[in-house]
Design brief:
This protein is α+β, with helices and mostly antiparallel strands. 19% of the residues lie in helices and 31% in strands. The strands form three sheets. It has a six-stranded mixed sheet with strand order 4-5-8-7-9-12. The chain has a five-stranded mixed sheet with strand order 1-2-13-6-3, with no helix packed on it. Strands 10-11 form a two-stranded antiparallel sheet. A hairpin with a 2-residue loop joins strand 1 (2-8) and strand 2 (11-17).
């Protein structure tokens, strides 16, 4: 598990990225286990889209069709599940957090920008971003035609290269660009490629694994 605790005005934000050691969170009914995050969870039915759900109280929005959740409510545990897509947490010092599931479809749909706008709408001003383990360009081969379309939408920096020299989609670069477009300059990256390290991470793309990691984030007042 990667764990971060961040000071807020009047509390703390917690961010957790699970790894294999924390188990599989693929099931929609996956619940608190291994001490990863206590309290009612908001679990999304992820669509690779740009829908953002606002969570007004712990457990609200559970089962929503969305790819991002945002809250200013202490104790509301926001979760997204990923294997190779990017899990992104947004934390505003004023006391707003977001969990975002961002693959190439979601990035094209603008899920990162949508979540960031919602954080600001709830009063977030000083926002930082945390990018968890996802597939990196070195392992993410992409057809050059589709890649050109993505570059048209997302910028040429999303064009990467695999370790074996073929065109690749660079998810971290696309996430960084979306964050900067949203005025978020503080970006902390885990620099873990899910495809590269089979001992620590699940990868659907590299190994056909059905398991999923969890990103959980919440505000704690104590
Ligand atoms: Zn890799």
């Amino acid at each position: 598990m990667l764990a971060l605790t961040l000071d807020l005005d009047g509390g703390r934000a917690e961010v957790r990225f699970s790894d294999r050691g924390d188990g599989d969170f693929a099931a929609a009914h996956a619940d608190s286990r291994g001490g990863l995050a206590a309290g009612p969870w908001t679990r999304l039915r992820q669509q690779h889209g740009s829908e953002v759900v606002v969570v007004a109280a712990p457990g609200d929005g559970d089962g929503a069709l969305a790819d991002a959740a945002v809250t200013a409510a202490p104790g509301a545990v926001l979760t997204v599940r990923t294997a190779d897509c990017a899990p992104v947490a947004l934390v505003a010092r004023e006391g707003v957090v977001a969990a975002v599931h961002a693959g190439w479809r979601g990035l094209v749909a603008g899920v990162v920008e949508g979540a960031a706008a919602t954080v600001r709408a709830l009063g977030g001003k000083e926002v930082s971003a945390y990018l968890g383990p996802c597939i990196h360009a070195e392992c993410y081969e992409f057809g050059s035609g589709s890649l050109a379309e993505l570059a048209d939408r997302l910028g040429s920096e999303v064009i990467g290269r695999t370790a074996w020299g073929t065109p690749a989609f660079d998810i971290p670069a696309a996430v960084r660009r979306a964050l900067r477009r949203s005025g978020i300059q503080t970006i902390i990256e885990a620099h873990h490629c899910t495809a590269c390290d089979a001992r620590r991470w699940y990868s659907h793309r590299a190994r056909g694994e059905p398991e999923r990691h969890l990103l959980a984030t919440w505000i704690s007042r104590s």
